[in-house]
Each structure stands twice: as C-alpha cells, then as structure tokens.
Amino acid sequence: MCEDCRIPIGDNISALQCDHCESAEAWKCTSCLGISDDVYQKLINNKNLKRFCQGCNSLVSSDPQTGNNMDKVLEKVNKLVELISDWDLKVVDRVRTEVSEQLSKETLRWNDANSQISDRVARCEQKMEEYNKETYNKMAQCEATLALLLDQSKELASAKTGIVRLGGIPYDDVNWPPLGCTGPSQTVTDNENIIQIVEKAVNKQQVEDKEIEARKNNLVLYNIPENQSERYETRVQADKDFIVKMCDDVAGVQITDSDVLKSVRLGAIVADKIRPLLVTLSSEGTKEEIMRMARELGRSGKRYSRIGIAHDYTPRQREENRKILEEAKAEIEANGESPENYKLYVTRRNTRPEVIKKKRYKVVQQTQNKEETAPKYMGEERLPCVTDSYDSCTAMHEV
Description:
Layout: E1 15-17, E2 27-29, H1 30-33, H2 37-45, H3 54-62, H4 64-158, H5 183-186, H6 190-214, E3 218-222, H7 232-251, E4 260-265, E5 277-281, H8 284-293, E6 308-311, H9 315-334, E7 342-349, E8 352-359, E9 363-364, E10 367-368, E11 371-372, E12 376-377
Antiparallel strand pairs: 1-2, 3-5, 3-6, 4-5, 7-8, 9-12, 10-11
Helix pairs in contact: 4-6
C-alpha cells in the first residue's frame, strides 16, 4: 500500500516502488508523488531514474556509488535543460525570421498597390484636365456661335419689316396684293426667325460635337499594303499585323492587336489601287503615339516611306480645311509666288483650323528619254497628296 495515503496498490493504481529495498510497504502513488500520468510513464520507461523510499533514501545518500549515479542523473537533466533551451531559442529565431519575411512581402505588396493607386489617380487627374480643356474649347466655340447669331439678329432687326415691291413701294394693310388672304397673317416676325436660326445652329453644333467625339480615336492610313485573300478575317488580321510591326520598327511604339479595335478599308476594291485604311484605336494616348511616329515614316526606309497617317475629320471639318487651304493658296499667289513652292498643312488647335506653310527646297526637274517625270525635291521624297475622296479623311492636307 501507499506509504503516505495508505491506499492498497493494485493494477488500477499508478504507483512507484522503492528501487532499493523493493518492499511491499515502499510504494507511493502518483497523487502523493505529485506527478502527472505523462511523467509517470517516462519514469517507468527510463531505467536510469530510480525512486527510493524514506528509509532507503538516507542509506543511498551515504553510499558513494549511489551518489555517482545521482550526479549522472543531474548531468543528464542539465543537458536536457540545455537542449530544451537551445530548441526554444531556435524556435524563437525561426518564428522571428518567418514573421519578418512575411512582413516584408506584405510591405512590398502594399507599396505596389499604393503605387498603382497613385498612377491611377494621376491618370484620372490628367483626364480631368483634358476634359476641362475640351469643355473650355467648346464654351469658346459656343460663345463665337452666339456672337455670330447676335450679329445676324441685329441685321434682322435693322431690316424693313414690310415687303418692298419691285417699284420700291412697301406692302401694308391697304396696299397688299390680292392673294386670297391678308398680308399681316402671312408675315413671319423677326423674333420667330431668330429663334429658328438659333435652334438650327445649336442642333447642328450638337450633331457635329457627337460626330467629333465618335471619331476622336480614329486614324486614316494611306498606302498600307492590302492583303488579297478572299477571307475578310485574313485581310483584317494582315492589316493589324502590319500596323503593329510598323509601329515597333519605326519608333519602337509597342501596341498589340487589342489596341486596334476596328480596321476597315475605305471604298470598293479596285485593281492596282491601295485603299485607305480606317482604324479605331483603344485610347487617345495610343493614337497620339502613332501620330508622333508619322514624322519618322519618311526616314524609315522603302517599306514605310510612302505611308501617310491622318486624323479622321468630319465632313464639316474637311470642308473648313479645303476652304482655308484655298485661301492660303490665293494669298501666296497674291504675293507673286506659286503654291507649289510651299508645303501647306492644315492643323487644328482648339478645334479651329490653321494653315502651316513650309518652304520647299529648290525644284529639280528630271527627264529621261525625252519624257518628263514627276518633279522631285532635293533632300526629301514628295508624299502623295491627301485627298477627300472618302468620308473618313484627313488630319493633314499636303499640297
């Protein structure tokens, strides 16, 4: 039985016997020893650890051999404590390292997300600035239109309200031609005329603004080789591939098929004639990059030197371009010069057309076999004139 609590020791009781005397009275249960079942099992399995009763403990303590055994046990216990301490330090270091690495990854991810957000905010601010400029330009255009309408209204107000006969006598209530109705009932007042003129001008300008907005990402390309395949999809893909390669070869502009939303040849197929190519791009930024590349085409080699790039203007804008070009030609001729001595370009700043004049180099006439050939210009190749044969032409007219 247990030497402390005196309970009988059986198979169902966890207890330790004195390893020195092995007396039936030298048992002690785990409850009195104050150890858990886990520690109890380890003590049972470890043959180097001994348990002594109270009587044997004094004898063993005085025995040198037993003392040596205790020293060995203490040494092993100390080593075990050192191992546990080292393991604890290694665990702490490893946890710190893993936590530090994870924090670094998260910091990089958040920095990248923050950078992307900053870029998006910057792009939004840029777009807002562009929209503000566009709004300002449209307001200026509306003010110009209103000023014109005001001038027209003044002219109508100063006009005579009566209808003058061929002999110079105005019609009135007494002197009115017998047309089966009275004169005043058929007269349209000046105010009604002004309202009709204003409504017509505003509606026309709204339609024009919508068409300009629909064409803002469009370009027209000339002399792009035309694939002769019978399949429409093959021809469209060939045009896209040529544009992507041309942008990379000439100026290193990196675009993909997804940047070319639409590609359409203008006009009917004619033998030995390359039709203009109308393309719709994914953004104004992509369009601007390709337009800047147009300056390099003439110096890029035979494959691209004959290619022209132009904006897609509305019919009204093209009519304005033609008119201002004719005025510029007339001004040059009035100064005693020939328009052939100049390159004339029509550009648009703030939606208004403007002619840019560029003096040509000296003309050199070349003949071969007594046959006149097309004039060439020193230091440059003359590009084909841009015409308005199709509804989707052109950003720049060259004369």
